[in-house]
Amino acid sequence: MMRHLVVLAGLWTLLVACGTETGNPEMIPLTYNATTSAPARVAIGSSDSADVRVETVWLRLEDVTLTACDDSVSQTAPGLGLADHGGPDAALQTVELADTTWCGLSTALRGAPDAVDEPVGIAGSAVAISGTVDGRAFSILSTADVELDLALPDIPRPDDGSWLLGFDVAEWIDVDALRALPGEPIVVDADTEPAFLEAFEGRLAAGVHLWADRDGDGQVDDDDERLDR
Ligand SMILES: [Ca+2]
Q: Which residues on adjacent β-strands are paired with residue 68?
């Protein structure tokens, strides 16, 4: 039985279908969460030993489109907009997937220079991460537009559990470069640390992965399988 996932405040379970449907469509959970491939170095949430502790992972995500291998079907889930994916619970959507195989997932991170009424520190951001490195507070704010196009190896929709779109903060954050920056707190944006930010933005696309989340808990566990290649 799939664990019930908490939906972020204001996020409704939505479905937008496009294209021609074939083969007994089913409603499949698609979740979103920050992940870490190196928790001893970059932890999400509390940790006594990690070099970096990530506390918030704000992402502004566009629509997510899944494309079938034969190009006859695609499904688009509405973009989540700006939301914090650094908490323990994954954001949840439901997408209707036909009984076919899937070869692509596309979405994007988008800056929003004209955004209004957003909190200081995340306003206009595509990505805004905060936490500590060696106990020193840091914040990273990027407004760059980054296309996220994942190639999937001809995979069927999941029989159980969910698909999890994971954002690997350990791939995104260069720990040694971060701890070498001055300031307390360390503030990274286009004005203060352009070189660090450019390198960070260059790693964003490669650090996004789709997982077969077998127990549907919104976390990457040892028996969960990475689906993108
Ligand atoms: Ca899991």
A: 102
